[in-house]
Amino acid sequence: MPKTATNYDFLDAPTQDGDLGMLGSYRILGELGRGGMGYVFRAIDTVLERPVALKVMNKKVASTPNSRDRFLQEARAMAAVHHDNVVVIFEVGTHGGTPFMAMEMLRGETLEAINKKKEHRQYDRVIDYARQIARGLGAAHAKGIVHRDIKPANIWVEEGTERIKILDFGLALATSPDADASGVGSVCGTPGYLTPEQARSDPLDDRSDLYSLGVVLYEMCTGKLPTSQPAIPQQLVALLTGSPTPLRELNPDIPQPLADLIHQLLAKEPRDRPANAAALEAQLDVVARECEAKSETAVSLSKLQLSLKEVVDKQDDAKTESFDMAAFDDLAVPATAPAAFPSSPTPKPGSGAAANRPAASPPTGTHPSGKHQPAAAARPAPAGSKTKGSPAPESQPLSPVVWMGAGILVTLLLVLGLLWFILPGQPENTVSVVPPAEDLGNAESSPAPRPTPAPTPPTPTEKAAPSSSRSTPAKSEPRSSNENRTRAPREPSAPDTPAPTQPNASIATESTDVEMPVETTPEPLTEPDVAAVEQEPAEQPDPTERVKVNTTAGIGADSTVREDYESSLGTKPILLVQKRKGDGEDKQHVHLRFDLQAAGVSHADVQQARLGMVLSIPGHEKLHDTTLNLYGFDAKGADRWREEDGNRAILWENSISREGLDSLPLLAQWSSEGPEYANAQVVFFSSPELAEFIRKATGNSVSFVISGGNLEGTAVRFISKEADAAKAPTLLLSVAAPSE
Ligand SMILES: Nc1ncnc2c1ncn2[C@@H]1O[C@H](COP(=O)(O)OP(=O)(O)OP(=O)(O)O)[C@@H](O)[C@H]1O
Fold it and tell me: What GO molecular function annotations does the UniProt record carry, in alphabetical order (predicted)?
């Protein structure tokens, strides 16, 4: 937003050079943006010494009847909503008659800014965002707060994790001059996001927010608003009389079940929409399963088509007869059918996913299984290309075997096609709630409001270590058991403490319970990085050096490998460990490689070791009954994972996971016993066996596999090097110091 010269006359004189001024105890460093209500500033809370985004109501709005009081009232109510998908409000108050609200400083951008880039959105990302928004809305609705202004500008997408944060809860009402408590009032807002209730002057309720969410999702999928008139009066008429263009007419890549759900959200009558945010979330789960199941069926059809082509090719070659393969291509899944959904990760050239794309995208030399095949065998020949010499005359009879092959193919395709359309959901043995891995940024945020924190919550270090780091078979390791260590000096110290001196500090913040607010400038901020545990003072002279090696060093790498998933998953911001729902079989592993040579560590000198992984969603409330296993793998393939690509990603098919992990040494385990795991930020593995394994490793690097999960199939999500190099998986080593 262009910033014109402004007289911030509501600010007091700055106390430091370069600042814009002071507002109470806040140092105002710069303007982040302006909206209808006022300004948002980058600021420092000088009492708690943390960065904040300070929203200050402008004079005009503040002078309208009741609006100031309503702003404060709504902001306080909003501050009571504690949820991963709702921005954290630290403090609400007035200074010199100016209402303000201090909130967590977010890094990333609004969905509005993302939409402007006009990037193609994958359907599973739309589902992921929808889920997160539904969760945030559900938490607010549970407290009786209706947002009333859900629009892309109020949806924040956090950098790296893609976690959604809903901004400006309930504030629309506060700024509507003649609104009453029921939400009925003069219509204001951006025309495109108004609701039919507003057009009818009906009160707004939870389902109004769901309508607006439908508008947001429709726009994400199509780049267009479902109803768009230039001015509010026409928009209100259109809302009551018109219907949105069917979504798939604008973007056929969106699967039908998702399009149907979005249209349901856009129903004119609230009763025809999902009953509430929780119902919507459940419907999104079903939609995700349907989309995944249909994609998988499409892949199976494509594989079958390829195999039968090969059979027929062989027959054809033997007889040296010509045969038009286009006949088989015609039997393939039609390009507009759900089979053509963009498979979630963008397939890399030559990847299995590319190979599996139905007829429209012929394979490029990689077999659907993920194994490399001679290009000629895998690539379907273009129509007529099987002809040796000239195309076959039409009258030339085909061999009976060919006809038989064609007959079988047609029958099988018909049966599978039928199954595809009637398939009710996901096959039992697939994971139900987890969308394909590259888009899994935040999908596991808790649907329920977060538990109220203790008055003085434990530090991340304390949270992570005591119950969550359970080393088997380690009895006790003198220095690697940091479980009871005190808070590291550079850990954030204050954020959870309510500001005692703030006159209007109505909010006991949960800021650190969510995630450390990350300041972009200029204050040195703390991160819940795994090295924090290493900050405690040494109790006695220590002849060792501490070395931190993370997966960004040298040929280090981190990657998720997923069974039956034929695309590399090693370039994603999130690493996932998961079991299959129900039968508990491993489905998804994390592979890690640490380059000790690049870190200048000699294996033999390693005395103690801990492996730390930062959870992408701290306070992982769903991680009950979760056990994670850490295995080491050495010898062949450890320095270079088999057939990894340039991005250091590997397929399940090419990985050690395929053979099962039984032959690998189990080095440590982590399990989520005790209540503290819900607040864990970092998962640690530590044991004498881990250190021993590293000492004896033969390559320049050491590699590990993490498997496990819980029986509900919930994925455990960690931050990868792609998301944040500082929070990438880290090996903390205690190494014998060189003798003088
Ligand atoms: N918590 C935050 N952290 C970082 N930046 C923020 C935060 N909240 C708002 N901003 C920035 O400030 C800008 C203005 O926010 P504001 O909420 O005032 O405007 P808006 O939502 O675009 O308009 P309106 O309030 O009229 O709906 C946003 O676009 C965003 O860039």
Answer: ATP binding; protein serine/threonine kinase activity
pLDDT at 588 over 50: yes
For residue range 243-255, list pLDDT tens digits in order: 999 999 999 999 9
pLDDT of residue 452 exceeding 90: no
Pocket of ligand 1 (CB under 6 A): 32-37, 40, 53, 87, 103-106, 110, 153-154, 167-168
- Lowest average pLDDT, out of 3-7, 228-232, 234-238, 337-341, goes to 337-341
Token code pair at residue 518: 């990350």
Residues 201 and 257 in one domain: yes
194 lies in the same domain as 262: yes
If asked whether residues 120 and 87 sit together in one domain, one would say no
Residue 688 lies in a domain: yes
Q: What ipTM score was computed for the predicted complex, to two decimals? A: 0.96
Q: Are residues 35 and 170 in the same domain?
A: no
Domain end among 104, 123, 155: 104
**Number of domains forming the structure of the chain:** 3
**Residue spans of alpha helices (H) in 40-117:** 59-63, 67-79, 111-116
| pLDDT at res. 651 | 81
Side-chain half-sphere CA neighbours of 546 within 13 A:
16
Select from 403, 420, 406, 408 the least CA-distant residue to 333.
Answer: 420
Which of 689, 676, 535, 544 has the alpha carbon at shortest distance from 611? 689
Catalytic sites, residue numbers? 149
Domain of 552, CATH number, reads: 2.60.120
